[in-house]
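User: Study the fold:
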Amino acid sequence: MNRACRLAIWIALVFAVTVTASHAGDGEVTLIHIGDLHGHLVPRPDQRDGSPTRGLMAGGLAYVYTQIERIRAAHPQHLLINTGDTIQGSAEALFTRGDALLDLLNDWHIDAYVPGNWDFVYGTDRFRELFAGSSARANWTPLAANLYYATLYEYPESPYPQFAGQRVVAPYLVKTVGNVKVGIVGLTSDRGPQAVSTRVTDGFFFSPGEEELREAVTLLRGQEQVDLLVLISERGLAANLDLVERIAGVDVVLSSDMHEETREVLRAKSGTLLVEEGQDGTMVGELRVAVKNKKLARWHWTPHFINTRDHLANAAVAQKIETIRAPFIKGAAFLPHVNPISSAVLRTPIDTVIGHTKIALQRANFSNAQRMPAAIEGSSHDMLADAFKSGCNADVGMMRGFRYGTHIAPGPIKLEDIYHYIPIGPQIACGEMTGDQLRWQIEKSLDGVLSGWVGYWGGGWVNAYSGITYDLDPGNEYGLRVRNLRVNGELIDPPREYTVAGYWYVDDSNKINRAPALKIRVLKDQNGSTLDATDIVAFYLQTLPDKTVDPELNRIRLLNPLPKAISRNRELQPWRGVVRPDY
């Protein structure tokens, strides 16, 4: 080989190496996103007002998995990410303390998972058993940069003093997908499921996550030299948007918590893309991103709405769900189960019809709904408050707001439907509160939804009441939003003692619905045994004509509309007017 040929080959090799180096890390990655499954193993009806799939059976994990496998087949360079609130929200999840979901999802090859606040519902020991350390039973690679073991200064009675100040699970993960080096940071909610107990997160400390995200971005962009940086966060879409507009360097946020549905990608001023996948496993997100020179070159978003018309059930997953459900439904395999939170005993198969409804029962309407936006009121919550009021023969029934739940179409109500509403083991107590207490309880609940400060949002919707009606001006300040507050048709009397009914927990025995009350009496059965709140609802349905419920709606009258959505995405919780830079 002459000198000229050798020189030509050498130049070609140098050029090839240079080209390869300049494009190292360039490529495409498909992010498959699930979140807020809330224990929903099987489909439930879509009863949301204005929904294009209203009347169809939505969700169901066998159908969810079919969609995941479709995406995987079409896009081999992918990651499957679960953003939390998985092991709570159903009877199957509750009575197995999450095992029902682990047994199923451990076969799904989830690449990364951030725990949601409801994933701590069975206590810190159970959380550690399922998710923390090399012996964790879930193989989902949990990430939470803002979750620590409490120090003795933060919680002197910590059961884990030997780990004080350490992280409970890893803060981030680096994975190479094709040619693309992906950094994934996890942030869990900074609040535990306090509606269940103030003790369920004993020994853990949650920070807001801002400092941890700044540190992770610097490390992953600098030391790790990632090409794509993904934040998986259970802090809610609005809070995540606020975060990434103040902290540069995040390419994509996969969000959960508020059950928003991003039918279009929300794009921050920083260029960060944000998506969220609704509730109950009724949606799977597919975000295809192309990376060039460590920047997003292009992207394509497809929201997949899971329903039994457009999807077939994966046979293997469906068979496993049938096996998981067998001890809970009618048949030879049914077994009684003890509620791990209240110790009440389930002796009735959960597929038993316990009553009927004349109207759809749900709390899922978007904030621009013409009647009953979910942030303010829902037919399901109205019915539950009525049941508690009836059980105590009280002036007022109270029901806390929450984002998990299900939809019930007009027709039969099954016991498992009620467990989707109340999967947290409360008992029901009767007691007394003053009119002034009730008013400020309502104002506080409203502020947790309508406050201009995103960080103050309480994570639930406005509390529901039976026997109470009022007018609401959502634009007013705290303490001035409620007008014309009436109890059973009469203007509320501030010093009067009203009889009330609502959630009660043994660790907060002087409170009803987490508010101080007098003359508390906990409802028991005729033998003095524990009754779960689901039992009270079932008994209530038996007392109605034809065992059929038809709750009175619109107990809260909006004097002015809720704020408009900030984008073309419809919202469950309105964001316009939030105190922060204009979107």
User: Anything to note?
Assistant: The mean pLDDT is 93. The longest helix spans residues 3-22.
